[in-house]
Design goal:
With about 220 residues, the chain is α+β, with helices and mostly antiparallel strands. The protein contains four helices and eight strands, in the order αβββαααβββββ. A hairpin with a 5-residue loop joins strand 7 and strand 8.
Length: about 220
């Protein structure tokens, strides 16, 4: 079973995003046949592992504290456009906040709910609940790259990006065992999301779709 299930709902893409994704669809079913493994379980033997450094909380934003074995490489480039850079920053914080909720084993953690609304928030809750039910969390290094961002005329943002899960695995809290799985084409996932700036000035993710094994994301 792959590290991270794609439990996120479909959205309407801009023409540019649709061309980039080329028939990206939502993938609600974790891969593999081992029911004892959960796609995307977090690292560490328990939820009390020492946290990694996180971006400082500001303007009421939640502080993101993660176990030290949960790390990232965000290769998203600064655009020089303040609005676009804010979208990328808040999208990154949402990703971290979801992993924090998994580490805390809390499907209602306020961190990810600060950065997501609507369908994306509801599906994230289901995703986190799956980890809680399996008493598991994520571990290892996850890389994000090949981003494409468009601000639409209605003020929403369309963000497409790739995720490399080849060095990220599931870790089970009861046994401390990490399930190291082989790297395949499905270790690489493409995402497309719609974000909107809320009344707090935060770019919240409202909808998200994903596709494993996308040619766009292969090394």
């Amino acid at each position: 079973m792959n590290r991270r299930p794609t439990l996120l709902a479909a959205l309407t893409l801009t023409a540019a995003a649709a061309l980039t994704l080329s028939a990206c669809g939502s993938d609600d079913s974790p891969k593999g046949s081992d029911n004892d493994k959960i796609a995307g379980a977090d690292t560490g033997s328990d939820t009390s592992a020492s946290p990694t450094a996180s971006a400082p909380a500001s303007a009421g934003r939640p502080k993101i504290d993660l176990p030290s074995d949960v790390t990232y490489e965000f290769e998203w480039k600064k655009t020089g456009d303040a609005q676009k850079d804010a979208v990328l920053s808040d999208a990154e914080q949402r990703i971290r906040a979801v992993d924090m909720a998994i580490a805390r084993q809390d499907p209602l953690d306020k961190g990810y709910r600060f950065y997501s609304e609507g369908t994306a928030a509801a599906e994230s809750q289901k995703y986190i609940r799956e980890f809680v039910d399996h008493k598991a969390r994520t571990t290892g290094l996850t890389r994000y790259y090949n981003e494409s961002l468009t601000i639409k005329d209605d003020g929403t943002a369309a963000l497409v990006y790739c995720e490399d899960q080849s060095k990220a695995f599931n870790k089970f809290l009861k046994t401390g065992k990490t399930d190291v799985t082989p790297v395949t084409k499905d270790s690489y996932v493409v995402y497309a999301g719609t974000l909107r700036k809320n009344d707090k000035g935060v770019w919240v993710t409202e909808r998200l779709i994903s596709q494993r094994g996308s040619a766009k994301c292969q090394p």
